[in-house]
Amino acid sequence: MNNAQTKLYHYLVEQSPRITDDWLNAREINGQSVFSRDAGVEMDRQLREENRRLVTSITKAFIEDEDSLHKEWEAWIELVSDRRLAQDMPLHEAVQQFRVVREVYYNYIKEFSKTHDEVTVEDILHWNDLVNSTFDWVITQFLKRYNDKTEKEQQRKQTLINELSSPVIPITEDAAILPLMGDLDTERTAYIHKNTLEHCNEYEYDTIYIDLSGVHNIDTLVAHRIFQLIDSLKLLGVTTILCGLKPRIAQVAVNLGLDFTNIQMKSKLSHALQERMGDLNTSHN
């Protein structure tokens, strides 16, 4: 490291408040964006603190080995990516702001180079490579973490949706209803298959009423998975009664060659439950 680079480091550290100010002042009014100029005093304070920390950390690359700084950069990435995710920030906004802060940072290196005669062309080229390498690493890791966290959050939400939209509802000690609604896809039917078998095994139901009246569309693979569920329940000793089967879904099943012969069918769930209540009353008399 030459003398000019040491001077540049101290200069950038000294100018870091101005670098942050210039970045903040470059913002535009942009509705509900985290980075909107009118986002509020608290958001300004948070962004200022985050940017100052980023600028200070990146500037260390001029005096320290880049590999030794990865943990420090990763800590910043973890903190800020989690905040942006909680704020539901579109990813393209983060990319844009990284571009702006890098441009502002470059401007200060240019300003330093113009006022220090000892700076050579080789110095400028080296500093440009160093800044690019550092920013590229931080941006890449930020995007990776943000995408990973987004995918995990989407999986969590999907699991919650599956749990709420495919409940096994007990109606007696030995019987339950599985109401299915909306469009069924392979992921959701796989969850339904697993969840239903677990419930029947845990609570020892002997009868499950699968209500399909709320299902509007179904493809051949999903229809096959539903019949696989019925076969699996049969192996557990559970009787399945299909209710509310729509003509379109019945046609898909027929085209697949699925056999309805040994499956109890009812046009409506209410009819099936009335029949069950009648049987229970008869058995009690």
UniProtKB/TrEMBL annotation:
Q: Which Pfam families match?
A: RsbRD_N (PF14361), STAS (PF01740)
Residues forming the STAS domain are 165-276
Protein name per its UniProtKB record = STAS domain-containing protein
Locate the transmembrane regions by residue number: none
| Coiled-coil features, chain-numbered ranges | none
Taxonomic source organism: Pontibacillus halophilus JSM 076056 = DSM 19796
Keyword annotations of the record: Phosphoprotein
Which top-level group of life is the source organism from?
A: Bacteria
Key word Magnesium present in the record?
A: no
| Gene3D superfamilies given in the database record | Histidine kinase N-terminal domain (1.10.490.70), STAS domain (3.30.750.24)
